[in-house]
Structure formats: C-alpha cells, structure tokens
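Throughout this chapter, every protein is written as a compact record of paired, labelled lines. An example of such a record is reproduced below:
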Amino acid sequence: MTSWVTDCRKANIANKMDDGLLLSNDSGFQSDWKSIYHRDALFWASHENHTDSIMRTLVTAISSLSWQFNLSPVIEFTTVETLELLLVRVFQSWLKSTPTVLEELDRHKRAFLKQLPLYTVAVVDIVTKFIEPSIKLDLAALRRAAKADYSAGQNMLSLEFEVIKLLDCECRSSLLLGAVERFSKDYLLPLNVASKEMISQVGIKLLRVVTARRMAIYSSLKTSMKDADAFRRFKSNKLILAGAIVIAMLHLIPGVRHRQSILQQILEPLADECCIQATNLLYLREAIMGVIGGN
C-alpha cells in the first residue's frame, strides 16, 4: 500500500491519540440527522462548478496547518468543506457579474487563486471560532505558515466578513466527518474487531486521503454509469461516500481484510442507511482501495 502511506505523509497525518474520530456514545445526533445530507447532496448535484481538481492541494495545506496549530479533526475537515463551498460561491458570484465574458472569468479566477492562501487563513479562523470559540489563533503565525501575502493595508476582520457574506452565513461542522463517525460508532465498534483508538486513527487517515483523491476515485467509476445525472447524484452524496469509507476501513484493519463474514454483517444495513444498493457501495469501496493501493 505504498501510495496510501505516501498520501498519508503528504497530508501530514499525525499518530496522536486525540487525532481521530469521535466515537463516544454522547455524540447527540438528531433524529432527522439525514435531512441535512439530502439538502447538501441536492446542492452539489445542481451545479457544474467542479472543485475536485483542487482538493488535493486544499487537503494537504489544511492538514499541514491543522498539525502545526494543533487543531482538531473537526476543525480540519470543516475547514476543507467550508473552503470548497467558498470556491463555489465565489464562482457563482462571478457568473452573476460577467456570465458570458470568459476573459473576465479567467481574470477573476487567477486573482482569487493568487489570494487563496489568505482566504484559507480566514476560513481556518472562522471555522475555529465556530467550532472551538475558546481557541485564539495567532493569525500572524498562521499567515506565515500558509505563505499568505498580507500587506499592511489589509484587514483580516474585513476579509473574514467578506468570506462570511460569500458563504451566506453558512458554516456547519463537516458532514463527511460526522457521517463517518456515526457509521463507525454504529457499525464498526459493535464488531469488536479493533480498538476504538485504531478505528479512530484509521478513519481519520482514510478520510484525508479520500478527500484529497476524490477526483481519481470518482473518475474510475464514471464510465460505469451511463446516466450522467445519476452519477452526479451518486457523487454528491456524502452519506454514500461515508459508508464506502467505513467498509474500506475494515479492509485496512489488520486481521480483518479477508474475513468476508465480517463485511457481510454490516454491508446490507449500512447500504440501507445510505439509501443505496450494497453493490454500489462495494463499487465505491473498491474505487477507494484502488486509489490508495489496497489489495
């Protein structure tokens, strides 16, 4: 699994005990917890603003910052999802102002990407305030770590307000992380095939790599789905991806990889939870394993 190890290292994955999934029984999920996932899937399936190609860069940068500043996985993955949403919102704002002038769109894109490290700092700070209000980040150190150009005339607070406005005040904890945590707690822990700590750490490592390599994972499946709209709905659903990640975690736990009876205990119930056929969940799991180099 050379590529799996390489991607983990590139993403600055730590082996700290607290750097993992939250698998406690007091997570406090609401009874209608899936509704937000359905709304999220509808949003991501409804536009053509593809962000897959930049995810590897985003994940690597944000994982590195999270490691350097000792930020929790929930801050890390919420930052990734929020920054991805910001990219889409920015693109949508450009289309409203110059819908047919490609040269203008390219100019906007180049200018924004040049400032992406600074926007990354702003999003990290916004998310940290939202998730852990008690944490006070050293913004000067964060800007240096992110290699963000920052002039004396710029104001980080103004930039953060700009980001919040672009996001339409939308900031929420990572949906993908939340689903993986819930499914791990409900389906993996009861199997008693690994400790909570191992499941937690394997889950976080796999989440980083899957998020970073999302384009390669779904590209390998695109030709097998003839209906483009169905593929977009499939690709946009974080519950489905979380389910595939959880059964991929089984493959990465020592001593469990080739025990099909263990997989069969959770496959159908988990597929039902994700509102998808079990075979499709397996296809996505195989695409994940293919990208990370699993056998």
